[in-house]
């Protein structure tokens, strides 16, 4: 399945049905009278967040969605049928914007949450509505009103409590596969991960916590370099960031600073998000010649956050790191949720 997290669509509510001009012609009603019914209401385009849809792929090739028009009013004061609504299923975490103004219209973050993207038009009034003492036989009715029409931009922002960030080849995909049942593609070359991967990691209590492996960021990602700029928005909803650093990198300190500068440049409060650091691939360095403790101490002083040493491959050091993540998440559960900026 392709991972599509942006789409632009046109939505049109159905037009209301026209009112009808009609008169009664019953055998035993000598006076007769107007009997034209009202038109039915046009259908609306309604978005609903569902769990079984993961991307915006359905909107990649179909760009226009229109609800059914209302039916014309009938004789004998019969109201026309309402038009059927057009239901668009979107992934949980979809943000809806007005493409023309950039205004955020809806943020669908819960299963079953709905948003009326384009309301249907009202049905027109039949001539029965215009009966009065002065006009006993009105010969006119009103047409139905057109439905709303909008050009919308959809953006998917993943819902994950822990976001795993780091340079390409830091081992993010390997880590998420070690912690959860997720099985992302893993290989030893830059940008192996082309889409965010989600994995559910179980707490000791048995509750599931969603981890998101965010594709590799590089210097200049916030301005469009590499792949990271396409996925920085997915970090916005995370509560805690796990910054993974490759200990085999030529300059782990510079690797840390690169990612932090990108978070700062992107804004939206990402640089201030609670964070821990994990020095990964400790199984690949020579413990006798590599000053791992010195690197850990330097990063701790520089970042003012706790630094862990782990191996995603051998699973060494994962438990203390997870315990710290659970602690941070529990502490955040006691306070108000972080505001999400758009």
Describe this structure in words.
With 342 residues, the chain is α/β, with parallel strands linked by helices. It has two domains: 6-156, Spo0b-associated Gtp-binding Protein, Chain: A, CATH 2.70.210.12; 162-333, P-loop containing nucleotide triphosphate hydrolases (Rossmann fold, 3-Layer(aba) Sandwich). The chain is 16% helix and 23% strand. The protein has a six-stranded mixed sheet, with helices on both faces. It has a five-stranded mixed sheet with strand order 3-1-8-5-6, with no helix packed on it. The chain has a three-stranded mixed sheet with strand order 4-2-7, with no helix packed on it. It is rod-shaped, with a radius of gyration of 29 Å. Mean pLDDT is 84; it is low at 219-228 and 337-342.
């Amino acid at each position: 399945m392709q991972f599509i997290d942006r789409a632009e669509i046109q939505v049109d509510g159905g037009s209301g049905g026209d009112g009808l001009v009609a008169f009664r012609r019953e055998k035993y009603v000598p006076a007769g009278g107007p009997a034209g019914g009202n038109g039915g209401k046009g259908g609306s385009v309604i978005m609903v967040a569902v769990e079984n849809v993961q991307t915006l792929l359905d909107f990649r090739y179909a760009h226009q969605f229109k609800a059914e028009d209302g039916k014309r009013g009938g004789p004998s004061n019969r109201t026309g049928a309402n038009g059927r609504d057009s239901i668009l299923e979107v992934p949980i975490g979809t943000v809806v914007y007005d493409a023309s103004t950039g205004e955020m219209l809806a943020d669908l973050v819960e299963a079953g949450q709905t948003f009326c993207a384009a309301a249907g038009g009202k049905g027109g009034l039949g001539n029965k509505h215009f009966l009065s003492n002065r006009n006993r036989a009105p010969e006119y009715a009103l047409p139905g009103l057109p439905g709303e029409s909008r050009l919308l931009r959809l953006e998917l922002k993943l819902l994950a409590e822990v976001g795993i960030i780091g340079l390409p080849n830091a081992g993010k995909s390997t880590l998420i596969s070690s912690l959860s049942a997720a099985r992302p593609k893993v290989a030893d070359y830059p940008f192996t991960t082309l889409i965010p991967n989600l994995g559910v990691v179980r707490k000791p209590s048995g509750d599931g916590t969603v981890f998101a492996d965010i594709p590799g960021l590089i210097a200049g990602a916030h301005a469009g370099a590499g792949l990271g700029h396409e996925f920085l928005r997915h970090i916005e909803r995370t509560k805690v960031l796990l910054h993974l650093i490759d200990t085999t990198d030529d300059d782990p300190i510079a690797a840390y600073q690169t990612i932090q500068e990108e978070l700062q440049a992107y804004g939206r409060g990402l640089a201030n998000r609670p964070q821990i650091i994990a020095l990964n691939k400790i199984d690949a360095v020579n413990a006798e010649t590599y000053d791992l403790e010195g690197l850990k101490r330097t990063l701790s002083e520089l970042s003012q956050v706790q630094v862990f040493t782990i191996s995603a491959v051998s699973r060494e050091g994962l438990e203390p790191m997870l315990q710290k993540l659970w602690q941070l998440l529990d502490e955040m559960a006691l306070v108000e949720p972080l505001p999400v900026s758009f």
